[in-house]
Amino acid sequence: MFFSTSQPAVRRSAYAPAMRSLDRFLDQALAAPAASANMGRAAFQADEQSWTLSLDVPGVTREQLTIGIEGAVVRIETLADAPRAYKQAYELPQDIDTTASTAKLENGVLTLTLAKKQPVSNVTKITIN
User: Taking the model in full, what pTM does it have?
Assistant: First the structure.
C-alpha cells in the first residue's frame, strides 16, 4: 500500500462574504462611541415642565458654541475657530418651547434647560340650535 499526502482542494466558504460584512459592522459599531466621545459626558434629567441637559465642553467659550432648536431636536456644535470640536444632536420626545428655554455655560459645563411645549388644543365649540 502506498500512502501519499495530498492537500485538499481549496474551497471558498459560502460564509466568507457574510463574515466580512459582520467584521465591518462590528468595526463600525465599536468605533462609533469613540467618535461621539468628543462631546464629553452628558447628564439628562426630566420633570413635568422641562428637560435639563448638562454637557462637559471644556476649553470652549460661549462665543464658540452654537445651539439650534428645531421642533424636538437640539443641535450643539462649536464654530470652526474653537480649540476643540463638538457636534452632537439630541432628539427629545416632545417639541421644545424655545422662548422659555435657557442655556448656561459655567466652568466648562453647558447646562440647557429646555421647556416642554404645551400642546395647544384646536377644538372649536359650536352651539346647537
Answer: 0.62
Residue 37 amino acid letter: A
Is residue 28 a part of any domain in this protein? Answer: no
Stated as kind and residue range, the H or E segment containing 32 is: helix 16-36
Per-residue pLDDT for the chain (129 aa), expressed as one digit of tens each?
555 566 555 555 555 555 666 677 666 666 654 444 455 678 889 999 999 999 998 889 999 999 999 999 999 999 998 888 889 998 888 899 999 999 999 999 999 999 999 888 888 889 998
49, HSE (Cβ side, Cα atoms, 13 Å): 3
Q: Quote the domain boundaries for residue 56.
A: 41-116
Number of domains in the chain: 1
Q: Which CATH number do you get for residue 89? A: 2.60.40.790
